[in-house]
TrEMBL record:
NCBIfam families: spore_yabP. The lineage of its organism: Bacteria, Bacillati, Bacillota, Clostridia, Lachnospirales. It comes from Blautia ammoniilytica. InterPro entries: Spore_YabP (IPR012504), Spore_YabP/YqfC (IPR022476), YabP_sf (IPR038705). This is Sporulation protein YabP. It comes from the Bacteria. The gene is yabP.
Length: 93
């Protein structure tokens, strides 16, 4: 199944920072009221906010609908899919 949605186009659309649709989603890594972490065809995507909620999830189609007050959307590169390290530790390698 992973190979099927590997080539899906990725799209992130939000309306008034309260509801949105994300396509090209491979998996939902974690979610709670403050943060939703998705693995997309373009890398790891963190959505941070308040009262965050996964409204609809269809991994077969690679789509997720979310609701809540979106405050931040951050993509992470493939290298940062590992456990995150503190900034100071990364600086002094």
């Amino acid at each position: 199944m992973e190979g099927k949605n590997e080539n899906m186009p990725h799209k992130l659309t939000f309306e008034n920072r309260t509801s949105g649709t994300i396509t090209g989603v491979r998996d939902v890594t974690s979610f709670d009221e403050k943060e939703i972490i998705l693995l997309t065809t373009q890398g790891k995507l963190k959505l941070k906010g308040e009262q965050m909620h996964v409204k609809r999830l269809d991994l077969k189609q690679g789509e997720v609908e979310v609701e809540g007050k979106l405050e931040e959307a951050v993509y992470q590169s493939g290298n940062s899919l590992k456990k995150e390290e503190p900034l100071l530790k990364r600086m002094f390698r």
